[in-house]
Every structure is written in C-alpha cells, then in structure tokens.
Amino acid sequence: MAPLYYSLTTEEQNVSLTILSKTAFQDFVARLLPDYRVVGPVPHDIGYSFEEIHDPSELQMGYPTTILPPKKWLLPTKETLFKFTRVNGGVIEDPPETPPTVILGVHTCDLHAIQLLDTVFSSGQYDIHYMERRKKTLIISIECLAPCDEHSFCKDMGTLTADEGYDLHLTDLGDAYAVDVGTQAGAELLQKYSSSTTATKEEIQKLNAVISAKWPKFSYRLDFDVSELSSIMELSMKSPLWEELGNRCLACGSCTNVCPTCFCFDVKDEVELDLVTGQRVRNWDSCQLDDFATVAGGHNFRASRALRQRHRFMRKGKYILDAHKHLGCVGCGRCARACLVDITPVSTFNELYRQQEAGSH
Amino acid sequence: MVAIASYPQTKTVTSTDRDIYAPEMGTIIDIRPLTALEKVFTIQLPKGRSLGHRPGQFMEVSVFGIGEAPISISSSPSRSNGTFELCVRKVGDVTTALHNLKVGDKVGLRGPFGRGFPYENFRGKDILFAPGGLGLAPLRSLINQVLDERNLYGRVIILYGARNPGELLFKDELKAWSERDDVELMLTVDRGDETWTGNVGVITTLFKYVSIYPRNTVAITCGPPVMYRFVLMEFFGKGISEGNIYLSLERKMKCGVGKCGHCQINNVYACQSGPVFPYKEIKGLEEAL
Fold first, then answer.
1. Domain boundary among B77, B92, B113
2. Contact flag A126-B260 (C-beta cutoff 8 Å)
3. CA distance A220 to B224
4. Same domain for B109 and B160?
5. Which domain holds residue B73?
6. Among A124, A181, A196, A198, fewest CB within 10 Å belongs to which?
C-alpha cells in the first residue's frame, strides 16, 4: 500500500522509498517522451482528461478527477481487432501495434479498476488485444490527498489507497514527490530516466504527516460497510427501487461510458470506400442502451430501463465481485457526476440498505 | 440467484498467443434451402479438420464487411466427416449476407463455443424433445447424435411445432423420423393450410397425446422466448424432475468468449455457461425465462 507509516529509524527505512523533486519530476517526464507515449491528466474547459502529452508542462498532476477514466488507454473507445480484405472470402491481418506507454497520475480508485480489467481480460479466454496493450503500459499512480468532490466515495469502497497495481506510486510532499516503487519495471524506469534520491529522515517524516492529514479529509458516505454490499444486492432483486430508477433513467448510457470498471463492448465491421478492405472494430457499449440485449429475431431480453439499471447495479455491487474477486465499483463518483437525473451509486446502495433494514419488501 | 456450481466460469487461461477474436476461414461446400427463410449451409474447415463440437454448441460466423453472428451447429458430431451444418434464418444483416453466398464461398468461423448437451448422461433414458420453430436447428444436432447411437437410449419422442406448414424445418428428415418405429414424432402448426391434415395448435397441445415414465425421462426444449414457460409447465405436468429438464436459451452472443456482456442472464454469461442449461441451474435466475 502507499505508505501510511514509515519507520523513522534509518535501519528500518523502506529502501524502495525515493524522492523526486518537482523539478526532477519534470525532467523525468521530459526524458520519457522520446521513448514512450506519455499520457497524463490535462486540464480542459469542462474538466480534466487523460491525454497524450508532448511537454511536461501540459500535465496537471493535482487534478480532482477526469471525465473519462484512464481505461481508455487500455481498452480504447474504439479499437481495431483485425483488418480484412474481402478477397476470396477474406484475408485477415493483425491490427496496428500499440507503442510503449506510460500513464501518469492515475488515482488509486482507477488503479483498482485497472486491476479488475486485468483480471477480466487475462482470465478465462485470454484477450490478447487488451493484454498486449497492458503489457506495454507502465502506470505511475498518485496518492489522493483530498476527495475529488462530493461524489467521491472511495473511502467506503476501500480504494482510497492501493498497495499494488502500480509501477511507481507518487505522493505529493509539496516541493517533491515521494516515490514508492511497485515493480521491477518501475524501478528500472526510475533508475534510467530520473535523478531520484533516497528519502531522508525529514522527508519520511513529511510523508507521514501528509498521509496522516489525508485520512480525515475523506468521509464515509455509505450507511453500511462495503463487505455487506454483495448480500444487500442479492436480496434486492425485487426492490421497488428499480422501477423508480427506471422511470427516471434516460437510457443515455452516460453512467457506463464514464465508468472505470465497465468493459462491455460491441463488435462491428467497417468497410473502406473501395468496398474491399476494412476492419473489425470493437467499441465501448452500454447495457443501459435499449437494444443491448436484443437478439436478431427482435426479442429484447432486458427491455425496460428498470431492469437495465438493476443489471448495472447488480454488476457493480455483486456479479463482478463474485466472478472476479474485485468490486465492480471503485467509488470514483464519475457516474454520479455524469447522470442527468441524479441516479447515483451512493443513494442507490443506501436506499437498498434502508429498504432491507426496514423490511419494506 | 443461484451459483452455476457444476459449471463454474472457466478460470483456466487459454493460450496467450492466440487471438480469440480472429476467425479462421471455412468453405461452403453445400447450400440447401429449407423454407422461404431458412437455408442449411454445409461448411468444411481448413484441411478437412473435424470441428470437435458437442450438440448444443454454437459458432460465430463472419461475413467480412457485414459482421459476425452466433449460429447454432445443426449437425451431429456423429456425422461430422470434416464438415458441419448451420441452419440459418435470414433475419439480420449477417444472415442475409450468408444467404447471398454460393457454394465455394468462404466464411469466417470462430468456435465451437458454449456448453452443449451432456448426452452421455442421457444414455439409458427416454428423451422427450420439444423444439419450437427454429429451435429444431440446435436440437437436430442432438437428435441425430442419439439416432446414430440409437440402441444406447430408451424412447425417442419428438414434439415439434411451427407457425405454419411452410415453416417446418428439415421436412425430409421429419418424414424419415416419422417412418422409423423407434422414433415417436408428432407435429403441430399454429395455423394449418389446405394441405395440412395434422394437429393444429401451439406445441403444448401435443402433450396430451404423450404418456411417459417421468423418472426415466429427460426433457429438452428450445424455441422462441415466449415458448419456454409454457413448455416447462407441460414438462412439470408430466412429472419430469427439474434436473432432467434441459433448455437451450437464445441470447445475443456477440463475442462468444465471456467478455462483451450482451448475453448475460443476471450474472451468467450464456455464451460460456450456456446456451444449454439444466433447468435447476437457471430457475433462480430472474432474467432466464
């Protein structure tokens, strides 16, 4: 985990803790640029987004949240699965390769989400497209020192920090970053591209102070412990809440589009104007859209918005946990920010809990 | 919600250097029109390789430039000879494109996918098949498997319903089955025509003509979504136990490999845990029937 407490005696110091001054960090990023596609949080008029940068000054590491999660660099909104030529029935060729990539400034909620995606795409049927991209990606995460906004509930979901899933993990000490090394690849990156120093006793004390100051700034927003979520969901299949959410839901798919753990997709063919060459692509899809579960014959197996909202929350609170041992919701709050009719996971989970406590269904 | 205990979602990782979305090419070696909307395609794999499927499994079939669609395998493993058959209803973009192909044309193939029928467990038992409409396409794979090892099973009873006589599939085989004395075949149509002399009514109207020994009978159904709960009532009415009832469920299996999410029945990916389910496994799933 990102260091909560470090020993203050030098002989017990965590040897993996190093320090990058803010200037040294800028230099580090600048040195990565020729060898890596570097992605990080960049400000825009309407918020922040993870974008490819070409200069360290574009980065804003102290961002609150991004509109889309960093997922889009591992599971792109649209990607080519293969190219084809419609000659003699079809000849297929591999999609273009992904360049080696460093994603900077990943919050720990998104880090947890990426660990789920890694599990989904590497277990069962191995998804070579996601995994090849993942293998070429180094993740440099950053410890959140204050909640993004009122929609965050990472503390409830246990994603307020992370003890794995990163190559390097930064904690902002004001004029420098404390760098926790998570993997050998991270150590090599740091060694090759940065002029980091070993943390001094004073810096370790500062890290302790920063981390200690962080915890109380985040509040609990769920009325129950997250370990109960799965059983609350299991007992909520017939809750009247789904009908209520269905009546409000616009079936726009915004919630799933901004979700760091949603991974459902659509597959379709695109043909060039020559009508001979083309590509099979996969696009993000949403279980909230009307025809998501409609078969060719016309039957829609999840025809109502109520059932689709139920499906979404069941996945977030139970199905994904059961299947992959990672929660399907990491408390980032993006869906709550994106929803036009204020359907939020916190209010939904709390209401289901309240109904069960009241025995109202 | 029930756990699919006997068939957990596979955690065994498949080969890490194979692209699960890349089809291989098969060749259409025969096309047989069945009705105005359905054709049977006989397909050969590269190098005459056997498909190695189980009755009830499905393929993802590609026409490049149009797309990919899940199609159940209609032929039995017992008759593979390096080929297999797909019975395709012309109903969407991909199936319309398939209908426009000719003998010798190639199609993209992935599969076989999913869980088929555990027919080895049916040996020694009577089998009651109740396909409706296009539901005969996947069940034909199992029926022919059973008929090709006929002496291993008890009675073979087939109750088959279609909307009208023109939509009955595999009429030549229906005729051959009706002429066998070891197959009990009954047909019905929702609406007859001037030539139809058989039963008129939905498939459930046939059950009153059948008497079975429920403790030794396996009942199997596949058909349009509306049909299942009514046929189930008939199965229960015959005293068949939940563990001896098998359903093949249609869903939108887009990827076939348990990722894309379109085929989910609650927490169950139909493309992986199905499309064939024992009823006892899905009776607790709100979205199953």
1. B113
2. no
3. 48
4. no
5. 24-113
6. A198
Q: Smallest CA–CA separation between A2 and chain B, in Å?
A: 30
- Confidence (pLDDT) at A95: 85
Here the ipTM equals 0.91
Residues of B whose CB is below 8 A from A321: none
The H or E element that residue B43 is part of is strand B38-44
Question: Under an 8 A CB cutoff, do A129 and B21 touch?
Answer: yes
CATH label of the domain that carries residue B36: 2.40.30.10
Q: In what order do the strands lie in the sheet with B67-72?
A: B67-72, B58-63, B106-113, B24-33, B38-44, B83-89
Concatenated DSSP letters of B85-134? EEEEE--SHHHHHHHT--TT-EEEEEEEESB---GGGGTTSEEEEEEBGG
Q: What is the pTM of this model?
A: 0.93
> What are the tens digits of pLDDT across the range A119-164?
999 999 999 999 999 999 999 999 999 999 999 999 999 999 999 9
Q: Are B166 and B105 contained in the same domain?
A: no
Which residues face B269 on adjacent strands?
A: B264
Please give the Cα distance from A170 to A185 (Å, whole number): 15
B26-39 b/e (C-beta count within 10 Å ≥ 16 → b): bbbeebeebbebbb
Q: For every residue of A213-257, which 3-state class applies, written as one string?
A: HHHHHCCCCCCCCHHHHHHHHHCCCCCCHHHHHHHHCCCCCHHHH
Torsion of CA B178, B183, B187, B193, to 10 degrees: 0
Among A84, A234, A261, A301, which would you mutate to test the B interface (most chain B Cβ atoms within 10 Å of its Cβ)?
A: A301
Residue A269 to residue B69, Cβ atoms within 8 A: no
Q: How far is residue A187's CA from residue A168's CA, in Å, rounded to a whole number?
A: 8
Tell me how far apart the alpha carbons of residues B71 and B273 are, in angstroms, rounded to a whole number: 17
Query: Touching check for B17 and chain A: CB below 8 Å?
Result: yes
Q: Is the pLDDT of residue B185 over 60?
A: yes
CA distances from A106 to A40, A97, A213, A324 (A): 8, 23, 21, 22
> Under an 8 A CB cutoff, do A128 and B250 touch?
no
User: Is B123 inside any structural domain?
Assistant: yes
pLDDT of amino acid B13 = 58
Interface probe for B, chosen from A233, A273, A295 (most Cβ of B below 10 Å), is A295
Q: Please list, residue by residue across B131-157, b when 16 or more beta carbons sit within 10 angstroms of its beta carbon and e when fewer do.
A: bbbbbbbbbbbbbbbbbeeeeebbbbb
The answer to whether B206 and B128 are in contact (CB under 8 A) is: no
